Amino acid sequence: MTRTTQPLTHETWAGAIDQAAKEFPPTQLPIVSGQVPEGLRGTLYRNGPGRLERGGIPVGHWFDGDGAILAAHFTGAGVTGVYRYVQTTGYQAETADGKLLYGNYGMTAPGPIWNQWLKPIKNAANTSVLALPDKLLALWEGGNPHSLDLQTLETRGLDNLDSLNQESTYSAHPKVDHQTGEIFNFGVSLGRNSILNIYKSDFTGKIRQKAELPLQGIPLIHDFVLAGQYLIFFIPPLRLNVFSVLTGMKSYSDSFEWKPQLGTEILIIDRENLSLVSRSQAEPWYQWHFANGYVDGSGAVVVDFARYSDFQTNRYLREVATGKTHTLAKSTLTRVHLQSQTAKVISIHELLDRSCEFPNVPTANVGKVSRYTYMSSFRKGTDISKEILNTCGRFDHQTETFTEANLPENCYPSEPLAVQDRKNPAKSWVLTVVYDGNCHCSEIWVFDSDRLDAEPVCRLGLPSVIPHSFHGNFKASTTQL
Q: Are the C-beta atoms of 219 and 239 separated by less than 8 Å?
């Protein structure tokens, strides 16, 4: 594979998003270095915004880009990659017209004011994926998921999971209990006061149980956490100015108002019957993502998350779409202990004084104690107001140490995912898609999870640049390939 060296600029990371992503059909991926572990079998899926403009007009926010899915199938015969846009109705219409037609999270609908009502918000299908036995769901929290073929990534269309109506929302952060096969998720119904809809599905994704919980105003809830027998929600002190949105004066992104006086509301839900166990108020903070949760030996609920002091992170993420950032938005890996029957905070403390995002644990540990948390972060010395996440690593809760992956300068990894080895359950691999700004190319890197700071055990070349993505999923193979 030919590598063309590109001149470096201060915003090297912007090279991955300055052009619309190029799809490619099923392609055997060349090994750049090392070899694919024999015990790594299954498919890595990644989702993120593949294009951030139409007709020379940029979208308003990084969250507005059209979703594009990367699949890398690891088999005994090698690794095959495929990359395709999710063929949403909005994507197809804008492709046909060659221009932006819809409003979204960070932009109002182009054209006259009445387009705000005539043109529905476009389902971007760009945030995450959920691999089910017979389909892949492309997830976006503002609507129904899209169903795709697991192998070819062909879009089948919207999927209501046997229960959702056309107006229902289904979050991009479902939680899967891999011991029971149950899948938990939520959606928010908008109104003068919003409704938190909670869903429990079987292993096929079909929703078998639902519950509703009224909320005050319209907050922004992006994620939640499974912790033993509980589902935990942190409702940040953020409320939507509905008037601004309805009149078309501002986008959703610009209409959210930070109200620290409200504090953070904590909800604890019983996972069995989806009923409210307790709720309380805590000090104000914001979070996009949780790492994990569990119930400790004393019965207290433990939750780890990436905590921000305010909502400046939204401005920073809006700037990412322009290729140049200047807003400081630092988060830290934080742990909170909660009294389960009252939702009161027992204690809260910082685990790692290092800005991080996309924290996660091995899938087998979701909702249970996990020794390790994996996350994206910044190299030491990085001006985080001008860069995007440029390293990743593993935090060891036993030793309270952070092991950083061995990544050269100007290389930008996606969210790191730990994958268990099929032949040796005690061994795992960390997979990440890396944009290398030194050669303007993208690769899949495989690390030994216990030797993250060593060279990757394998690097696989990709046919085209994969823009910075949000979330991924690894579906282990059910056959010995």
A: yes
Q: Structural domain boundaries of the chain?
A: 12-476
pLDDT, one tens digit per residue, over 250-309 is 999 999 999 999 999 999 999 999 999 999 999 999 999 999 999 999 999 999 999 999
Q: What are the tokens at 17?
A: 């998003």
pLDDT per residue as tens digits for the range 64-92? 999 999 999 999 999 999 999 999 999 99
Give phi and psi for 250, each to the nearest 5.
-140, 160
Using one digit for the tens of pLDDT, what is the confidence trace for 452-478? Answer: 999 999 999 999 999 999 999 999 987
Strands 256-258, 238-240: parallel, antiparallel or unpaired by DSSP? antiparallel
Coil, helix or strand for 359?
Answer: strand
337: left (phi over 0), alpha (psi -120 to 50) or beta: beta
CA–CA dist 42, 368 (Å, integer): 24
Q: Are 389 and 289 in contact (CB under 8 A)?
A: no
* H/E segment holding residue 320: helix 312-320
Let me know the angle formed at the C-alpha of 137 by 459 and 95, rounded to the nearest 5 degrees: 85
The secondary structure element, H or E, covering residue 475 is strand 471-476
Neighbours of 229 (CB within 10 A): 15
The closest of 24, 64, 72 to 45, measured between CA atoms, is 72
Domain 12-476, CATH: 2.130.10.10
- How far is C-alpha 298 from the chain's CA centre? 32
pLDDT tens track for 40-61: 999 999 999 999 999 999 999 9
**Residue 134: pLDDT above 60?**
yes
C-alpha span between 143 and 164 (Å, rounded): 10
Per residue in 293-332, pLDDT tens? 999 999 999 999 999 999 999 999 999 999 999 999 999 9
d(CA 159, CA 210): 17
Structure tokens of 188?
């928010």
- Mean pLDDT of the chain, nearest integer: 94
Could you report how far apart the first and last alpha carbons of the chain are, in Å?
26
CA distance 336 to 365: 18
Contacts of 71 (CB under 8 A, 6+ apart): 43, 44, 45, 81, 82, 83, 136, 150, 151, 153
Indicate the burial class of 50 (C-beta count within 10 angstroms; 0-12, 13-18, 19 or more). Answer: buried
